[in-house]
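Readers of this paper often ask what the protein records in our data store actually look like. The remainder of this section carries one protein's record, kept here as part of the documentation.

:::
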Amino acid sequence: MKISRVVLKAILMCFALSIANTASAGWPERTVKVVVTFPPGSANDAAARLFADALSKKWSKPVIVENRAGAEGTIGVGAFVAGQDDHTLLYTVGGSISVAPMLVDNVSYDPDHDLLPIASTTAIVLTLTVNNAVGADSIPKLIETLKASPDKMLWTSGPGLLRYAFAAFLKRQGVTMTYVAYRDAAQPQADLGEGRIQVLVTSMAASLAPVQTGKARLLAVLNESRAAALPDVKTVRELGYDQLEVDGLAGFFGGRTMSSEIRDRIAADVAEVCGDGDVRRKLEAVGHNVLGCTTSQLNAGIARQRSWFAEISQIVPIREPK
C-alpha cells in the first residue's frame, strides 16, 4: 500500500515532535549552572539565587550560581557566551544587552546573535534619594535648589542606562551637578548618609540604609510601577517626570544553540516560579517587582531600553566603542 507524500510528511513531523518533546522532558540531565553578572550580596544576585533554589527543586537537579561581575555586565555575558552549553544559563539585566555594548570597548559577544532570551523575571526597584541637608522633599524642590546652587552638589548612580538617564534629566531641567564615580558599590549610600554626596540614583536596596536612619529621603521610584516594598512612594511618571523613568528589567538567557523546546520548557518553569506566592514575597522583600516572566516581555523590554538609550544619546554625550 502506497503512502501519500502528505501522510508521510505528517508522520515525519509527528516523529520529530515526539523526539523534541522527549528531549525536553529529559532535561536537565545534570547540574545546571547560572552565570550571574552581579557580585555576591547584590539585589540581583539575591533574586538569581531565589530562582536557582526554586528551579533546582522543580528540576530535581542542583542549580548553582557563578558570579562573574564587572564592566557593565559584559564580563559575565562574555564568559557565558564563551563556555555555554544547554545546561548553562545566563541571568542578567536588559542593560547588558541594550546598553553595555555601546559603553564598553571590545565586547566579546554579539547580543543579537549569541544570546537567546528565555524569560523576564523581575525589575529591580530603582529610586531617587537625596540627603536631608539638601532640604528637598520633592523633585520640583530639588530642581529649584540645584538652580540656586549650580555645580555645588554631587551625585552618583548605578551603572549604564540609569546614569545616563539622570544626566539627561539634569540637562533637560537646565541644572548642573557633579558626577562622582565609585569603584565600591557599597560606598555611595554611606556617603549619601554623611552628606558627602547629595543625590543617589540606584536600587532601593543600595539606598535604603541612610533613609532608615533618617539621614536621607526617597523622592520617587523610577520604575513603571510602584514598588511593593514602598507602596506609598510615587513613581516619576505619576509625578510628571516620565523622562526619568527607567526599568530594572532582568531575566534568563540561553545560548544560541539551545533548542526551542528546552527554551520553552525553561520559560514555562520560570513563569511557574514567578507565580509562587512565597517566592514573590521574598523577591519583593529584597527590592524587586515581579514581572510577567515571559519571553515576549524580555524582548520588548530590551527593545524599549534601546529606544530610551538612543533618545538619551541625543541629549548627553555617550562614550562610543573605539
Q: What stands out?
A: The CA atoms of residues 235 and 241 lie 9 Å apart. DSSP finds 13 helices and eleven strands in the chain. The longest strand covers residues 115-124.
